[in-house]
């Protein structure tokens, strides 16, 4: 991953680190790695979403572990120097700066450490469609609903999950959401 970090310009790496800190502080639900990757690629840098996701996971793990162990900036940089000799100098400088500015703000509570890691819901989109025909059936006229959920996984990466439902399935889905809303009203 160190060779891939070397590809990322300092300003983009700093933005990634800031977003990771915000995610660790529960200020944003996750990091949109695909959007950041597209912006990096637009600037002329060849990097793919998978590599940027790995870098995001590594830096997120680094910051959360440093917060759990209450590391000072110098302790973190010394640990980085001992463990990862191939880390680019600009990345170490960014990590040093971000940790120096934000270390106190990261609150990794005992409850958060012991909680099972699950994704966080960010957004939902849906659309109604009708399948008119296929290569095996000339006349379908089959209505369906496509639902796309935007979810931030525990490391903060935002991904889209899509699925299709028949109209009866969608009605059941909607009914269950209404039941959840009713229960939440009583809380």
In words, what does this structure look like?
InterPro entries: COMM, COMMD4/6/7/8. Belongs to the COMM domain-containing protein 6 family. This is COMM domain-containing protein 6. This protein has 187 residues and is α+β, with helices and mostly antiparallel strands. It folds into two domains: 1-105, no CATH class; 120-185, Nuclear Transport Factor 2, Chain: A. Helices cover 54% and strands 17% of the residues. The chain has eight helices and three strands. It has helices spanning 2-7, 10-24, 33-42, 49-68, 73-83, 89-102, 110-114, 167-186, and strands at 120-131, 142-152, 158-166. Strands 1-2-3 form a three-stranded antiparallel beta sheet. A hairpin with a 5-residue loop joins strand 2 and strand 3. Helix 5 (73-83) packs antiparallel against helix 6. The longest helix has 20 residues, at 49-68. It starts with a helix and ends with a helix.
């Amino acid at each position: 991953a160190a060779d891939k970090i070397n590809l990322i310009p300092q300003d983009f790496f700093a933005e990634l680190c800031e977003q990771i800190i915000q995610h660790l502080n529960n200020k944003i639900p996750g990091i949109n790695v695909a959007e950041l990757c597209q912006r990096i690629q637009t600037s002329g840098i060849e990097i793919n979403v998978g590599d940027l996701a790995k870098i995001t996971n590594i830096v997120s793990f680094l910051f959360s572990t440093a917060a759990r162990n209450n590391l000072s900036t110098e302790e973190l940089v010394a640990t980085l120097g001992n463990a990862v000799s191939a880390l680019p100098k600009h990345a170490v400088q960014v990590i040093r700066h971000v940790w120096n500015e934000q270390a106190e703000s990261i609150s990794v509570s005992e409850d958060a450490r012991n909680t099972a890691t699950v994704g966080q819901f960010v957004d939902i989109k849906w659309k109604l469609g009708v399948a008119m025909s296929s290569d095996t059936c000339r006349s379908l006229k089959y209505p369906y609903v496509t639902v796309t959920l935007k979810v931030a996984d525990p490391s903060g990466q935002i991904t889209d999950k899509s699925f299709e439902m028949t109209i009866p399935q969608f009605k059941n889905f909607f009914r269950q959401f209404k039941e959840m809303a009713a229960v939440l009203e009583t809380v």
